[in-house]
Automatic annotation (TrEMBL):
PROSITE patterns: SIS. CDD domains: SIS_GmhA (cd05006). Belongs to the SIS family. GmhA subfamily. Binds 1 zinc ion per subunit. It comes from Gimesia aquarii. Keywords: Carbohydrate metabolism, Cytoplasm, Isomerase, Metal-binding, Zinc. The reaction produces a racemic mixture of D-glycero-alpha-D-manno-heptose 7-phosphate and D-glycero-beta-D-manno-heptose 7-phosphate. Its cofactor is Zn(2+). Zn(2+) binds at H63, E67, Q174, H182. Pfam families: SIS_2 (PF13580). GO terms for cellular component: cytoplasm. The gene is gmhA. One of its GO terms (molecular function) is D-sedoheptulose 7-phosphate isomerase activity. This is Phosphoheptose isomerase. It catalyses: 2 D-sedoheptulose 7-phosphate = D-glycero-alpha-D-manno-heptose 7-phosphate + D-glycero-beta-D-manno-heptose 7-phosphate. The lineage of its organism: Bacteria, Pseudomonadati, Planctomycetota, Planctomycetia, Planctomycetales.
Length: 197
């Protein structure tokens, strides 16, 4: 029991430390602001946001898509958004027939237009299916954003906007990503629906 208390306090300190680094870094904040502009631009053109990630970041992709389509905090019209992680038939068919690295890139080729925007979430910045997804976006002229960590990894080379969350550990980076994701939705809905922030 005592051990659990020590660990929760340690983890809270770690989470606060990573978030504090973002609070003090205008370059990352500026890059984040570009991600809001890209998403707004897509909605203004009648497009939508498509989101993908692996593991905890797949859950984040679905969490964020749900908030766009349903709502974050205030009542408003639904916003079109889709997580590319949610259809087990599509994921298993592509995984089985073309390989796991292609699970997102093939959906991007099939579903997205240049009016849409893709958001990849990867703490390492090196998950091959996210790298391939960004390459597919480049090929098709689809705007792309990544929320990543560490030095930005491979995804940094292929994305239009790359927001690098501070933190040494995957969990810390994911906890910063969640703040970015909620803030992205909050900023987009405030702008589109005239909410005060
Ligand atoms: O949630 C966690 C760890 O907190 C894990 O499920 C984690 O998301 C998985 O290991 C992912 O495969 C990591 O992928 P990525 O963030 O490096 O792209
Ligand atoms: Zn996790």
């Amino acid at each position: 029991m005592k051990k659990a208390i020590r660990i929760i306090c340690r983890n809270l300190e770690r989470s606060i430390e990573a978030k504090k680094l973002l609070l003090e870094n205008p370059d990352i904040q500026n890059e984040f602001s570009k991600s809001v502009d890209l998403v707004l631009n897509s909605y203004h053109q009648g497009g939508r946001i498509y989101i993908a990630g692996n593991g905890g970041s797949a859950a984040d992709a679905q969490h964020l898509a749900a908030e766009f389509v349903s709502r974050l905090a205030k009542d408003r019209a639904p916003l079109a958004a889709e997580a590319l992680t949610a259809d087990s038939s599509i994921l298993t068919a592509i995984g089985n027939d073309y390989g796991y690295d292609s699970v997102f890139s093939r959906q991007i080729r099939g579903k997205l237009t240049t009016h849409d925007v893709f958001l990849g979430i990867t703490t390492s910045g090196n998950s091959p299916n996210i790298v391939k997804a960004l390459q597919a976006c480049k090929e098709k002229g689809i705007p792309s954003i990544v929320f990543t960590g560490h030095d930005g990894g491979e995804v940094r080379k292929w994305s239009d906007v790359c927001v690098i969350a501070p933190g040494e550990l995957t969990s810390q980076i994911q906890e910063v990503h969640l703040v970015l994701e909620h803030t992205l939705c909050e900023c987009v809905e405030a702008e589109l629906f005239g909410f005060d922030l």
